[in-house]
User: Fold these one by one.
Assistant:
Number 1:
Amino acid sequence: MEKTTAEKIDEFQLRKQRLMAMGGEEMIKKQHAQKKLTARERLALFFDEGSFQEIQLFVKHRSALFGLDEKEIPADGVITGFGRVNGRTVFAAAQDFTSAGGTLGEMHARKFWKVMDMALEAKKPFVSLNDSGGARIQEGIPSLNGYSGILYRNTMASGYIPQIAAVMGPTAGGAVYSPALMDWVFMVKDESFMYLTGPEVVKAVLGEVVSHEDLGGTMAHAAKSGVCHFVAEDERSCIDGVKKLLSYLPDSCHSPLPVMPCQDSADRLCPELDTIIPDKTSRGYDMKRIIASVADDGEFFEPHEYWGKNMVVAFIRIMGRPVGVVANNPYFGAGVLNVTASDKAARFIRFCDSFNIPILTFTDVPGYIPGTEQEWAGIIRHGAKLLHAYSEATVPKINVVTRKAYGGGYIGMCSQALGGDYVMAWPTAEIAVIGAEGACNIIYRRDIAAAADPAAKRKELCAAYEEKFNSPYMAAELGIIDEIVLPSETRRRVVALLDALKDKTEKRLPKKHSNIPL
Ligand code: HXC
């Protein structure tokens, strides 16, 4: 008998309810027992109330292999759609661990493809909330094909729309590569882990015994591998973090930057900066204090806080407009440039440049670190990434040399001839090829050796060298730095420069793309 309209509507409601219930009460309880939220709870926290529009709820797997024909996987283990985040449209996919472990089969992947294609066409950010056992083993090759299509889309979207992954549970196997291809990765302490193969396989193949946490936990990736950019204490703060990050980013590379109302003053002096540099130049200080002084209301948002601490990257606002900061931090390892610092800064610079976010650099660097460990780790090719990233970037690039700018470090940290639009130095700046001691040992080796008192001679020669180079004046006379400014006037200067350069355009040669050093 033909169904009535009311019956058809009821049937639809029933079917929908069943799919909306995810993996069912038992599985949801299990998820909650692990202090994890469900995919729907996460989406409800992420999007402005009532704004989420789900797409492809009814998509179903079509595999009959290994008992899958008997298995119902609501929404095929992933909830996709779009909604508003603080009033702005964002597209998202949230894997539902309660449904077959959030595993990725053919149709699960196709839902990702659909929502990512929509985000790309709509020119809006894409956010993925990952919680999955990886490729759905029963389905086999279609799962791998599904990943390929996601990774392809991640790559196509790179530099076009912002892509953010929040890993809120396991992300195993090839599943790790989608977050790795996205711009930003958030992880939750004691809950998230990412690895190519888990501890059991590592033990079987390598005989190495390691816990999930040590192998691929949040802090392993935040402090050791650098895969994780943001660490969250719990899921709520993770979602808040993603929203905060979005507040600094445009919808796409063709969209205007989001400008926030600004209470801070364009003329504000920062008197605390006049005393921040220690008298003794070998002493460290925390560059983050300088960044906070210059930023609107002292606020900055820092990716990679635990990785490569000798280099700081951060988002700030200047008169309400987003700015990316790249800064050596002499508080850690004298602020040297090593492999990690170079990679960290280069990636951040390329991100900012992709999305038209101006770059403000603070330089205090004794140079690239020498020695076998760094040479064999490839400091030459990694260090080259920093040079490449600054040279390639066409956004406004402003540099403030607070103290040391030595040798390759001077060149690498947004020097003028590398494309820096405006390089300022504080009166405390020291700009030279190498430090006085090293310089005198090389150029005056014979004079020192021949002197009646070599130590006194070295001291005398070093003093003369320091007099010449341990200041910004020679560089200013040569026009290699554009201005010497009082530290307390830095914010004023930065505000004026960013305003003056906001419509800057820079031509590039007609070519397909450059080839980044590896
Ligand atoms: C099929 C899977 C699965 C998978 C989990 N499940 N992972 N089903 N394929 N890859 C299922 C479980 O059988 C279980 O189903 C449900 O999901 C929940 O998983 P549990 O094991 O009960 O959960 P938990 O104890 O929390 O452990 C989570 C886990 C573990 C650590 C992620 O499930 C695990 O190690 N899974 C395998 C991870 C892995 O090796 N993935 C790589 C796949 S290969 P039931 O029905 O019992 O509830 C890959 C290559 C892709 O990803 C390459 C692409 C480029």
Number 2:
Amino acid sequence: IPYGYSSLSKRALAASCFNAHVCKALTFTNMGECNSMDEVFQGIAKIQYEGADSKNPLAFRYYNPDEIILGRKMRDYLKFAISYWHTLCAKGTDMFGDPTMNKSFGGQTNMQIAYRKVDACFELMDKLAVDYFCFHDRDIAPEGATLAESNANLAEIAEYIAKKQAETGKKCLWGTSNLFNNPRFMHGAGTAPNVDAFVFAAGQIKQNIDLCIKFGAAGIVFWGGREGYETLLNTDMGLELDNMARLLHMVKDYARAQGFKGDFYIEPKPKEPTKHQYDFDAATVISFLRKYDLMDDFKLNVEANHATLAGHTFQHELRVARDNGVFGSIDANQGDALLGWDTDQFPTNVYDATLCMYEVIKAGGFTDGGLNFDAKTRRGSFTEKDIFLAYIAGMDTFAYGLRAAQALIEDGRIDQFVAQRYASWNSELGQNIRAGKVSLEELSQLALAMGDVSTNISGSQEYLETVLNQVVFTL
Ligand code: XLS
Ligand code: CA
Ligand code: CA
């Protein structure tokens, strides 16, 4: 299948990618809408929770959607989302290789394929007990020759999505504009040196805000794909960042005027694709938001793989967001410790998931945000069944992480240790310093009188890691 498939019909490929997959012919109207209610993923039923001992690959071991954890159904606590781009669009290409996957889902023309992607998305959400999806404008409909044509394509598919939402109750976690793929944005979008690229980006974003409102999206994301630079020899960094902020203010003003009440998110990421990405990490983005007076409306969408590319742990980025009041949403995935790029793998690291959910619980849970699987199956995992196996892996990992994080908090030893470690800040002196009631001169007098620091206690990292292991392994 992966090679020489061009000699097969697309439908034959889709069929052969899947065991015992028998396809009925699909019919399309002239307008492109798929008349057939054909199941896309034939042969796969709704995934059920079977418990930790199950060896059924198409079952959940830890994700039990309607089980109550911390006072909410797991599905409402975890708020899983499907990433439209990876799941319905990405075809396994890399810089050395052609597609290994067929994502036409039986459609023939570009618009038919777009309709079938919608069918596939809603079927996946249903079968996987996922309640949300996330999208880029260019994921859901083909780009036309002009912005007007692209908008018309989008508007048509958006009607179909909204209809499916009304039928199923499935929701949109967030939408975003793809301002990085088309060559017109080679020098940037909001930070472009040429004003016409900025104008085009603004036009594209406006349409996307309208779509997000139509879908009832809880968030609107900005990932600065081309917002960065390669060399200062050709770059006016100050102007570029001022312009980015101007654009975000316009976005906020327009969306609020249209009644959008959700969150705007900036998604930090270093290194890719430009050498100096302006939104390098959480702390850099927060400093930008503060400088340009955007803290009231913008929060962060923290991605695990981007945290590690920035040289941080995932938990660090989440803590920075939480401590600064901009904890928003999460792109759940993982990178590869041996590779220095954004591999967007489905998350299977139980420690990372546990510590992530620990931060989410401490932040009071998600409000508008959720856990979007910004992750794709590996190039070699090219079958439709692999999509299910990948989501099950990620969802079970985070379900386990939620259970383990709750257990960690209930166990209490780590929180108690941290509280004890900082206990002296609750003494009268500590309180006075925290309240800003003590001057440097007064502290100097105290220091001169105290001899030396005598109350250091062990940080006990190894002990705390043992506690973490014990809790994670004895759920
Ligand atoms: C790319 C980003 C992107 C954003 C949305 O690395 O993760 O997919 O999440 O544009
Ligand atoms: Ca992402
Ligand atoms: Ca990524």
